User: What shape does this take?
Amino acid sequence: KAGVTQTPRYLIKTRGQQVTLSCSPISGHRSVSWYQQTPGQGLQFLFEYFSETQRNKGNFPGRFSGRQFSNSRSEMNVSTLELGDSALYLCASTQGVSYNSPLHFGNGTRLTVT
Amino acid sequence: GEDVEQSLFLSVREGDSSVINCTYTDSSSTYLYWYKQEPGAGLQLLTYIFSNMDMKQDQRLTVLLNKKDKHLSLRIADTQTGDSAIYFCAETLVGSGGYQKVTFGIGTKLQVIP
Assistant: This one.
């Protein structure tokens, strides 16, 4: 089985712009979660989607949004980029229907905001 | 509330055992996970333990769980230079909708000295 695929791997944007990141989960996985990783804050949960519905949300401003398509692929969007949005954005998928459903991570998208 | 704590750094000599420790605060955690992150990559699931277990061994990896003290440890036997990475502890709680919510520690950077 192919793993979780995130595109693009690297992005450089300027302040004020917006960005869209894509995640394709493992085949058969219906849950996709997004995390922001920074050196100071560690892994911060953004949101989780299951069957095209946002099921859980972290404490991020409304500039961060996401969606999930019927094929379970997910996108996240960040509008009005700030310097502090520079981070590694990780996507993880699970089957999403049981209590022991480990997260499987992609290699992330490295976003740099200048 | 839930919180996961880890020490930031551990340095060991090649061939020695490494022990990475983690404490969590929520006694209702169901599964506890260990992930490994190498530079430029996402998180790789190493192993996990169910909350009603005390120990789990998987080749060079041994996980010990002390539920009374909410303490989790990962022991790596015969540590190799390829084990140099950041190790994340994560606890899983069951959310109000029946889905799982995963909280990560900040990660322990393991440095293996040849």
Observations:
- Chain A has a mean pLDDT of 93.
- The interface with chain B takes residues 4, 6, 31, 33, 35, 42-43, 45, 48, 50, 55-56, 90, 92, 94, 96, 99-108 of chain A (CB under 8 Å).
